[in-house]
Design a protein that fits this description.
The complex is a heterodimer. Chain A is globular, with a radius of gyration of 15 Å. Chain A has 6 helices and 6 strands, in the order βαβββαββαααα. A 6-stranded mixed beta sheet of chain A has the order 2-3-1-4-5-6, sandwiched between helices. In chain A, helix 1 packs across helix 5 (148-158) and helix 3 (118-124) packs across helix 4. By secondary structure, chain A is α/β, with parallel strands linked by helices. In chain A, 36% of the residues lie in helices and 20% in strands. Chain A has a single domain, classed as Pyruvate-ferredoxin Oxidoreductase, domain 3, CATH 3.40.920. Chain B folds into 2 domains: 5-236, Thiamin diphosphate (ThDP)-binding fold, Pyr/PP domains (Rossmann fold, 3-Layer(aba) Sandwich); 242-349, Rossmann fold, CATH 3.40.50.920. Chain B contains 12 helices and 14 strands. A 7-stranded mixed beta sheet of chain B has the order 3-2-4-5-7-6-12, sandwiched between helices. The longest helix of chain B has 21 residues, at 216-236. The chains are: A alpha/beta, B alpha/beta.
Chain lengths: 182, 354
Amino acid sequence: MSVEKDLNIVLAGFGGQGILFAGKVLAYAGLQEGKEISWLPSYGPEMRGGTANCSICISKEPIGSPLVVTPNVLVAMNLPSLDKFIDAVEPDGLVLVDSSLIDKKVTRTDVKVCYVPATRMAEDNGLKGLANIILMGRLYEELPFCSEKNLDAGLQKCIPARKADMLEKNRQAFELGRASKE
Amino acid sequence: MPEKVLMKGNEALAEAAIQAGCRHFFGYPITPQTELAAYMSKRMPKVGGTYLQAESEVAAINMVLGASAAGIRAMTSSSSPGVSLKSEGISYIAGSDLPAVIINVQRGGPGLGGIQPAQSDYWQATKGGGHGDYHLLVLAPSTVQEMVDLVSDAFDLGDKYRMPAMILADGMLGQMMEPVALPEAGEKKLPEKPWAACGHQGKREHNIINSLYLQPQTLEQKIRDRYERYHLIEENEQRAECYQTEDAELVLVAYGASSRIARSAVNKVREMGKKVGLIRPITLWPFPTKAIQKAAKNAKAFLAVEMSMGQMVDDVKLAVQCQVPVHFYGRTGGMIPTPGEVLGEIEKILGGDR
């Protein structure tokens, strides 16, 4: 998986894990970078009590379907999400797994899998609820699709002024994720 | 150029309606349109407008009729089953020669159907829906930016021709976020409405807004006059985007969400050296027959791609007038076709060499 390629990303997990927010951060970072972007959430029965997922496209060309059917990046934050999307990932794609919530190992050998214990890392570092951003940090370390400045601008765009104190925590979480790559 | 922001189609459209001078919104929640009404409920009070959640869709559309009769820019929004409920009121608005904007963020039908995106209300939007001889202006955005741009066109065209206009979107466009440049804030100069029933202060005859004509001669004349306007619109207001159609042997026709997928498929087959293009109707009524007829001079076939069992394809056939075959590919019930599926259909038609 090369960072030169258009990114077709699926983020998936439980409702409340910040899946949609993390997607928005990526989308805004892509927008700052001058790329074409789209963000499409799952809505309706899929979300209620079950999995929440979100498709993000970051491309040099105008985006056709914003619904990502065959992602080249999958971020799975629970087991049902991993099971649901793993077979759809393009060969050579990147898969990020929150290994503190998912015991299972990916059996496919044609994709790159990174196991990041993001939820535990968040709790250990006083960043409860920011496992999503830790995973975004790792995603960025694997595929730096924009400049660091634009990524930070993406974070700033997504955190409303009344929650300004959260910005530093998000930055910390992001850096933790980046550092998780050995 | 204002800075681009990320917004959901539903919210961007709502903001654009306010910028277009809409000050009265009457809504009722329904997925996948609810963010539109929710946005209006937050913003309308801040611009001195009225947001009202009606007791039903039927009530909401009749409130639109009332506000519009008073000369005010009014709007309502819903999704497929809700628009069915509004159909009676839409017919009354058309019969009263009133402008109004109705948003349909389509979902799968019939009945309660589902809540995922669909395009199966094309017939309802373009061929009536309500009773009587009438048309709506029907505009079909394909991006969040177009959700914004077309809403002010809908208000302007509705005022110009004194008729209701519909934005026919779908759950995908309503729910997705894309970068969008909103119109600059500022007071928009709205057209005078000397016909409006907004109080005459003893200075003129009172205006009557009505759709009841018991004398058939009178009613027929009313409708004939209206149809003269419709013919004028069919002549002057057709809009379509032609993409790679100049040398196209196969021309895809698709609007809204499905046009995005069709465009991806066109790009892929062009890379393979195949002469395929896309006509994307922006006005569904008036249907862009001129663009289709122009393309029919060189094309060997057409392929309509829709998120329905085949509704717009009827209008493509009427425009093509049996000169060349018109094929159809569609998914329905909330399923979104993939570019790969459309590609397969293109190869089938071109006698693919795969």
